Structure formats: C-alpha cells, structure tokens
Amino acid sequence: MTIDKGLKTTLAGALAAWAMAGAVHAEDRRFDIPASDLRVALDAYARQSHQQIIYRTEDLQGARSPGARGALSDDAALARILAGTPFDVRRDASGALAVVRRPQPPQSRHVNS
CATH classification of 27-101, choosing from 3.55.50.30, 3.30.70.20, 3.30.420.360, 3.40.50.80? Predict the structure, then answer.
C-alpha cells in the first residue's frame, strides 16, 4: 500500500496542528481574580479560563477564596482559588468541572472500658 506524497504532507500538517493545539491549551494564561467570596472567584475563573464550572450555591455560602493572580495554568489557578477551603474539584466525562465539599474523615470513636 502506498500513500501519495500530497496525502502524507496533509496528514503530517494536520498532526502537527493537532499537537500544537494541545500545547496551546496547556499554556499559562493571565488570571486576575482577587480574594473574595468563593462563588465570585469561581465565576471569575469560569469567565477567564473559558471553562464550565458546576457548584451548589448553598454549599459555597460563607466560603472565601484567596484568589489567583498572574500567569498560571487553568489547573494552578483553580488550585489557588480553592486553597484553604474545604472544597475539591472533580472533572466529569464532558470536561465540566464540579466543585464539591471535601468529605470529612470519619471521627474515631474511643470506647472507655
């Protein structure tokens, strides 16, 4: 089986473009999210990163975020936003991010004899 030279060039170009798109996606972007209410910080993150974020408003009530500023990857910015909070992030099959309360470890029960 032979592949003509034009097809090889086209395939190589498409592969290179696909690889570059992945690299661009992984690059840092400039975030400017001040310390604030966690809901406000997550909404700002969604706008600046162009990512979809799901959370329950009542879960975030009263939670504060230290914010995220500077040239950061999307993951690093989100980690900074959630730093010091009782929340983690989960990514679903569609790529959407869900902010969920971190499960509390079970409390040990001491039995006195």
Answer: 3.55.50.30
